[in-house]
Amino acid sequence: MELSCSSALSWFLVVLLFSTVDAHSWIEQMKVIAANGTFVGSPGYARGNVLRTAPGFSDPTMTYLIPPDDRANQSLILPTDRICKSTQRTYNQTEGSPRLQASAGDAIALRYQENGHVTLPWNQPGKPKNRGTIYVYGTTEPRENDTLLEIHKVWNTAGTGGDGRGVLLSKQNFDDGRCYQINNGNISEYRQSAFPHVADTLMGADLWCQQDLALPSDAPSGKLYTLYWVWDWPTAPGVDPSLPKGKQELYTTCMDVDVVEGGSSVSHSRVQEGYVEDQSLDQAAIPSEFAEVMASGPKIKTEGSSAPSSSTLDATSTPTPPITPTPTVPAQVLVLTTLITIHTTIEPSAQPSGGWLVEST
Ligand SMILES: *[C@@H]1O[C@H](CO)[C@@H](O)[C@H](O)[C@H]1NC(C)=O
Ligand SMILES: *[C@@H]1O[C@H](CO)[C@@H](O)[C@H](O)[C@H]1NC(C)=O
Ligand SMILES: *[C@@H]1O[C@H](CO)[C@@H](O)[C@H](O)[C@H]1NC(C)=O
Ligand SMILES: *[C@@H]1O[C@H](CO)[C@@H](O)[C@H](O)[C@H]1NC(C)=O
Ligand SMILES: *[C@@H]1O[C@H](CO)[C@@H](O)[C@H](O)[C@H]1NC(C)=O
Question: Which residues line ligand 4 (CB under 6 A)?
Fold first, then answer.
């Protein structure tokens, strides 16, 4: 009985959601992750959130593209381009979409739908093999006028980048190695069998992607901590005939977390407990990402040069994504990634520089 209900639900949702395949992604939900890897507590939502289940919802309500579609030069990012969508520039929780409650040092999951960017890669020639790189920046001092160029690839893990107001908390592949939407492509079909899960009203039969990271251990209790999620998704030059010079394409979501005392903090027990195997894919962290969050420990803003918690592959343009979960990158590759980040951050930030193209070539 329960089985036939959920399969009926999944078919209904397949039909409902299939038309969103060409749309783009944003952070749909945040969850706190307990020390055993299980999501705990109530979900939290971005600023200005509108749930995809809301009447009349369409993706542009939640997506924010830089540079905007109507800019003649699609490789040009202006110093005035804000990092947040107009509805996400100030603290702005909508009814039914509260902030995430989490403690300093907690591991949290940011969850997003791949929207075909992972499972139908041939639809967008010239895109990076890792389906773009996703970054999370954190600050206790957000500004309404924060711009992309003053923060992205400028704020660093040590908190010494740019104006020093924030820190790079996480950097990873957009493709988390298992997420999918339901379609007839071979990648989706492979993942549907490799990573089965029960459909629900929010995700439908699709499986959302995750970016798992730890809040800084010095995030101040009783205050808000702001996260800027940036998906950097450039098109390389010379691949798509309609884009001979390639283009920049970035999407962001801006979010706040209520930093609360104690609670479900994993930082206290992270040493003793480990990820419990074989958990529901809908209700638990991704084992490899969670292991990296645990291994790198809580992020302290004043800490030295720890590598971003990620297994970012250097992105090259081929339409074939990895079919297995992202392998852990050897230490020397992470060091190289860090050096590239440092290299780009010491360049003047007012104009896009050669550094912008490092990961797309
Ligand atoms: C993990 O821990 C949480 C909170 O302590 C608990 O609710 C959950 O059932 C545990 N999950 C597993 C798989 O043991
Ligand atoms: C807050 O978010 C809602 C929904 O996105 C939006 O309609 C509203 O204009 C936003 N308010 C501000 C001040 O940005
Ligand atoms: C578009 O902007 C990029 C980045 O600033 C620049 O290198 C390029 O020359 C511009 N193209 C045109 C046609 O102005
Ligand atoms: C943003 O606002 C702050 C004050 O809130 C101001 O000092 C700063 O110059 C502004 N930056 C830009 C780029 O407008
Ligand atoms: C999907 O098909 C492409 C092209 O034939 C192939 O390169 C790729 O390995 C396949 N992926 C999977 C998961 O089967």
Answer: 143, 145
